[in-house]
Amino acid sequence: MLAKRVIPCLDVHDGQVTRGIQFGKAEAGELRNVGDPVALALRYNEQGADEMVFFDITASAHKRATMVDVIERAADQCFMPLTVGGGLRSVEDMYTMLRAGADKISINSSALATPDLIRAGLDAVEWAKRAVALGSGEIVLNSIDADGTKAGFDLVITRRISEAVGVPVVASGGAGKLEHMAEVLLAGKADAVLAASIFHFGEYTVGDVKKFLAARGIPVRPV
Predict the structure, then answer these.
(1) Which of 2, 16, 165, 180 is the residue whose CA sits 20 to 30 A from 35?
(2) Which CATH superfamily is domain 5-215 in?
């Protein structure tokens, strides 16, 4: 079995990391400020994170320069792959982030244009299969209903998609305790686990997660 990855996620709004319940509620004023994204990225780099994901939830063209600056500074100081998503609607947008230092680009514009693609479990599986057929190298599966609730991952849909596609699946949304991480990697058959709140607010470190997983026979990369 290949080593499972542990990936912190930073939701960046106007240049600061924020956290809320159910992804994307910036307009509702329900976001809690967590801190500077580069400082947090350095913390997780030191803790042994396998990768880092930045989601620009401002996602407006006129503020894109702020996110570019964040990626440039993070890439200059961190030695792990960086993924960037949010508001990247053109090849030029993607190229800009890659030039800034990103290693991967995350997009989901088709789901925004066609919401019915993600309305039911079966549709989510079909959308994942379509994305892979179009060339996606990895699926980041975020359960909006579970995001920020810390009540656990959606094991059913994670397993269905993991079994349906031939690329790695990153489980996201709902991490609240260490057991949740093991469950989604074992029962959900995910290849990696992504979390935000449990790391940002000091409940667990990346090392804590890896030690817990290793103790249960789940292979992880060393810290």
Answers:
(1) 180
(2) Aldolase class I (3.20.20.70)
Q: Which two tokens stand for residue 34?
A: 């967590």
Distance CA 124, CA 115 (A): 10
**Residue 217 exposed, middle or buried by CB count within 10 Å (0-12, 13-18, 19+):** exposed
d(CA 84, CA 93): 11
The answer, yes or no, to whether residue 130 has pLDDT greater than 60, is: yes
Domain boundaries, the chain: 5-215
Q: What residue has token string 């789901």?
A: 111
Nearest of 165, 172, 171 to residue 129 by alpha carbon = 165
Instruction: In whole angstroms, give the CA distance from residue 203 to residue 185.
Output: 20
Q: Determine the 3-state secondary structure of 53 from DSSP.
A: strand
Q: What are phi and psi of 55, to 5 degrees?
A: -110, 120
Q: What is the pLDDT of residues 153-211, one digit of tens each?
A: 999 999 999 999 999 999 999 999 999 999 999 999 999 999 998 999 899 999 999 99
Q: Residue 156, Cβ neighbours under 10 Å: how many?
A: 11
What's the CA gap between 142 and 84, in Å, rounded? 15
3 state DSSP class of 175: coil
Q: Is the pTM of this model over 0.85?
A: yes
| Predicted confidence (pLDDT) per residue in 88-127, tens digit | 888 898 999 999 999 999 987 655 566 555 557 657 898 8
Which DSSP letter does residue 148 get? Answer: T
